[in-house]
């Protein structure tokens, strides 16, 4: 690297915020180039602050994916998720507010109102692949411009990759001049154990109906690597026995699908063979109190 290039290198933290299911985690994964933050159609899929690192020739963006602000109902877990999202807004250089190109809701406006007035914020207007008539986008973009003094408003599709290079450029231009904080090939600050437990939780969110995933969490019980082969044991905690039966499915069929899909993702992400065992345990009230949530890493 020439001295002049090194002097101009930019690096900083970028919070990704927005209401549940607008595509925050999909966007972060697309910007980082790996699926490190789990995604599904259901709110509450993301429950942690997850860092994703994207390093280019002139800049390193350290993205912070957050749980969406949960406004639908109050619970100890939702309060905790909102706190994680609010804390992610402090001490970042740029905030990317993810909005939905197909509709703006009061929940979107509530998220924008949480921005500190001095924040450098960029609106990523996601899911433009779902907008057939692009002319309908213009009044929505105008409305977004009224909500906050955004530094840029960029229509994107996180899923199709549309306009992501442009979004990354707009972000990089607003990062402070600074050397990289992480080695160029680091993609996340989370370890394989965490990612393994999350991938199992993702399959539960994707393969089960509307109720059980919210009553569920996962934890690593065993993780060994021997000659590049990983043996991983994951415990799925549910709140009552009837939910255990649902997770297992008839003759264990649902658990088989969860385990197969999770194992294939792990092998791709970790780059090696994985033997995966999953156990389902009933743990009443795991999400009922702050103390119990803390034991499960929340
Ligand atoms: N059609 C379309 N769907 C998307 C796009 N981005 C995300 N999604 C879908 O929206 C849902 C929620 O995405 P997720 O990233 O988990 O949202 P989050 O709750 O904001 O993190 C998932 O089913 C994604 O596949 C997009 O650009 N286009
Ligand atoms: Mg998410």
Gyration radius, to the nearest Å? Answer: 20 Å
Domains, number: 2
CATH architecture call of the largest domain: 3-Layer(aba) Sandwich
Q: What's the helical proportion of residues?
A: 25-40%
How is the main sheet built? 6 strands, mixed
The CATH superfamily name of the largest domain is P-loop containing nucleotide triphosphate hydrolases
Listed once per kind, the bound small molecules are: guanosine-5'-diphosphate, magnesium ion
User: What does the average pLDDT come to?
Assistant: 92
Q: Quickly name the level 1 CATH class of the largest domain.
A: Alpha Beta
* Strand line-up in the sheet with most strands: 2-3-1-4-5-6
| Shape by Cα distribution | globular
Number of strands: 9
The number of helical elements comes to 10
Content-based structural category: alpha/beta
Query: What is CATH's topology name of the largest domain?
Result: Rossmann fold
Head-to-tail CA distance between termini: 41 Å
Question: What labels describe this entry?
Answer:
298 residues, alpha/beta, Rossmann fold, GMP Synthetase, Chain A, domain 3, 2 domains, 6-stranded mixed beta sheet, 10 helices, 9 strands, 22% strand, globular, binds guanosine-5'-diphosphate, binds magnesium ion
Word description of this protein:
- The strands form two sheets. Strands 2-3-1-4-5-6 form a six-stranded mixed sheet, with helices on both faces. A three-stranded mixed sheet has the order 7-8-9.
- It starts with a helix and ends with a helix.
- 38% of the residues are buried.
- Helix 5 links the parallel strand 5 and strand 6 (152-155).
- The protein has two domains: 3-172, Rossmann fold (3-Layer(aba) Sandwich), CATH 3.40.50.300; 192-295, 2-Layer Sandwich (GMP Synthetase, Chain A, domain 3).
- Helix 7 (192-207) runs antiparallel to helix 9 (253-270).
- It has helices at 3-8, 24-32, 76-89, 106-113, 137-147, 164-172, 192-207, 241-248, 253-270, 290-295; strands at 10-17, 50-55, 59-65, 94-100, 121-126, 152-155, 217-226, 229-238, 274-282.
- The model has no long low-confidence stretch (mean pLDDT 92).
- The longest helix has 18 residues, at 253-270.
- By secondary structure, it is α/β, with parallel strands linked by helices.
- The chain binds guanosine-5'-diphosphate and magnesium ion (MG).
